[in-house]
Amino acid sequence: MKVIQIVFIIKLYLFHKCHTLIAICIVPGEPRDVKVEAINSTSIEVSWTPPIETERHGIIRGYQIHVQEREGAVIPSGFLPYTVHNGDATKYTVVDLHPDTEYQVQVSAITRKGDGARSAPETVRMPGGVPNKPALIVNGTVDHLGKLSVYVEWKAPTQPYGELMGYRLQYGPRGENLATITLEGQSMLHKTLTDLQRGIEYEIRVSARNHNSYGEEAVKYYMTPEAPPSGPPINITYRYQTPGTIVFTWDEPVPNDRNGIIINYDVEFNKNVVLNNDYKKEKNTSEGRIVFDGLEENMDYTFKVRAWTSKGPGPYSELLNLHTEPDLVRAPMNLRGLATSESSIEIWWELVPSRGKVIGYQVFYTMAPGPDLDLWNQMSVPVTHSAELQNLERHAEYGISVAARTASGLGRLSTLLAVRVKPVDVPMYLRAHHVTTHSANLTWGPPIQLNPLHFKITYNAIKEFVDAQGVTQVQKIPTVTTIINNRIYSHIIEDLRPFTTYTVNVTAVPQTQDYRPPAKITVTTQMAAPQPMVKPDFYGVKGDHEIAMILPQASEEYGPIAFYYLVVVPKDKAFKNPDQYLTDDLIANKAGSKEALAEGPYIAAKFLHRNIPYSFALGNGQIYEGFKNRPLQKKKK
Questions:
Q1: Pick from 372, 393, 420: which residue ends a domain?
Q2: Where is the Fibronectin type-III domain (predicted)?
C-alpha cells in the first residue's frame, strides 16, 4: 500500500507541473538580435529578428516596442509602448524623443494570447538637440531696369537647444543640385539673391546651427517672374528633304537667356531678292522644327527665328543665308493611281529622262498630307514606271508623291495625287480554285464602274529549286497572255509546272485601251512525284555480304523531298519487276515484323530530307530510321 501511494503522489505532482509549464509557454518567447540606432536627435530605429520557431507558440501578429527614459541608474516606472500590427515586421522607427537623453528599449512579440517575453534591454543616447526650423519668408522685386532681386528673410528658431552660431542658406532650381551660402552669427537673418533666372521654380532652404550641428530646414518654393527671352534660339540647322523642300531645326535659347518657359517661335523664311519677292513665309510653331516647300532651284533664301515666353518675344537669330542647287532632276510627270484591292493602290508615272543619272524612285504616301516628308510613309523602288502600295486602310484617301532618286539625293517632287482605297476599275474578287499540279481555275467579278472592252490574263513565275546535283537553280518562266470576252468571268490556265508559284494578273481593259492596273493573286501549284532518278552506281564488293555503292539524289523541281527509301529486290524469276511493288508491301517485309519474308524485296534504309549519303555499304547490318540494312546473301544477285 505504501508503494502504491508514493507512486500516486508522484503522478499527481508531475501532472500538476505539466499544467503549470503549459500555462507559461502559451505566449511567444523574446525577439532576438535587437539593435537600436539613433537616426537624429529625436528619432531612433529599432530592429530585431523573430523568436525562434519553437518559442513562437502561434502566429506572430505584431510587436510591441517599450521605450523608457533612464535617469542615471534609476529607471522610471512609466514607459512608452509602440505597437506594430505586422507579424512580418523586423524594424520600427520611434520619433518625437528628447535630445540629449538616454533611453532603454525592449521588444516583445504579440500573438492572439497576448504579448510575450521582452528582449534584454538595449540602451541608446540621443544626440544633443539641434535647432528647429526657422520661419522663412521669400519676396521678389524687379527694378526699373528689369533686374530681378529675391529677398530671403527668416526668424530665429523657437527651440535653439543652445546658442545659435549661424545659418545655412541653400537654393537652386527645384529638383537640381542646390548652391550653399554659409552665414556666421545669430544676427544674420536675411539674404538678397540676384543671380536667379526668370520663369523657374526655385527651392530655397534655411537651417540654423548650434554647437551640435545644423537643425531642421525651412523650405520654400518660389517661382520667379517671367520676362521676354534675352537671347535667340541656338544651334540652327537645315536639311533638304527634296530639292524643293527644306526642314529647319533649332534649340531653345541658352538657359540664362530664356527668362521663362518657351511657348512659341516666330519664323521668317524669304527669297533674298530686292524686287518681286513672291516668296515670303512668316509662321509660328511650338516645336523646334519647321518645314517649307516650293523652293526654286538656283535661288538665295534667308531664315531667322525668335522665341516667345508668356511675356513676349525675344530677339531674332542672326540671318541665315542659303542657296538652292541648280540643274535639279525634274519631277516625274503624269502621276496616276487606282486602288487594286481594298488594301492596295497601284501608281504609275512617266519615266524621268536622265541619261542614266536616275537610279530609282522614292514614293511618299500618307493619309494626312503635309509639308514635312519625314512624317510620310516612304518606299524605294528601282528604275521603273509603277509601284504598288500595300497594307493600306480600307476606304481611306491617301496623298501620294514621287521623286526620282540619284546618287546625290532626290529630285523634285511630283504633284500630289489623291487616291481612295476603293477598287472601281479592276476585276473584283479574283480567286483561284481547283489548283492541281498543272492547272488552276480562275474566277472574278466585273469592275464596279468600268465597262471593259475585254479582260486580259497574264501569268508568269520565277522558280527556284535544288537539282539532282544539289545546286540551286533559278528558272524564269515567260509570261503567258490570254484575252477573255468581257462577259466571261472565269478561265482555266493550263500547262503549269508542279510546285511553282505564279503571279496572275487579270486586267479590265477599257474601251480606250488606256492602261489600267490589274487585280493580282499568286497561285502555287501542287507538288508532283519526283522526276525519275538515275540508278545507283556499284563500285565494289566488301566481303561476302556487302556491296559498296554511290547513291543518287533526286531533283526538287516538283517539290521538296521528304525522305528516300533504299529498296533491295533479288534478281529472281520468283519476284516481280522492282517498279511493280507497292511501298506498303515493302514496309510489310520490314525486318522483325511478322509478315517479313525470309528473302524477298525489302527496304534496307530510310534517309531523311537531304541526308542521303554519297557512298553507302549495302548489307552492313545497321539500322537506318527503323529499317535494317540486312546482310546480303552470298552468291546472289
A1: 420
A2: 30-129, 130-230, 232-327, 331-424, 426-528
- What is the domain extent for residue 492? 428-524
Residues with Cβ < 8 Å from 12, sequence gap 6 or more?
Answer: none
* Residue among 53, 49, 46, 25 at smallest CA distance from 114: 25
Establish if 4 belongs to a structural domain. Answer: no
Give the Cα separation of 617 and 318 in Å (integer): 87
Based on the fold, state whether residues 552 and 465 are members of the same structural domain. no
The torsion angles phi and psi of 138, rounded to 5 degrees, stand at -125, 130
Identify the CATH number of the domain in which residue 144 sits: 2.60.40.10
pTM: 0.62
Q: Are 387 and 379 in contact (CB under 8 A)?
A: yes
Answer whether 398's CB lies under 8 Å from 405's CB: no
Assess if residue 26 is contained within a domain.
Answer: no
Q: What is the pLDDT of residues 42-87, one digit of tens each?
A: 889 999 999 998 888 889 999 999 999 877 555 555 566 899 999 9
| Residue 316 shares a structural domain with residue 346 | no
The residue type found at 620 is N
DSSP state of 311: T
A 10 A CB-CB count for 514 gives: 8
Grouping H, G, I as helix, E, B as strand and the rest as coil, residue 24 is helix
pLDDT tens track for 358-406: 999 999 999 999 999 999 999 999 999 999 999 999 999 999 999 999 9
Domain identity same for 80 and 45: yes
The enclosing H or E element of 411 equals strand 409-413
**Does 493 share its domain with 467?**
yes
Grid cell listed for 115: 504579448
Dihedral sign computed on CA atoms, order 607, 613, 616, 621: negative
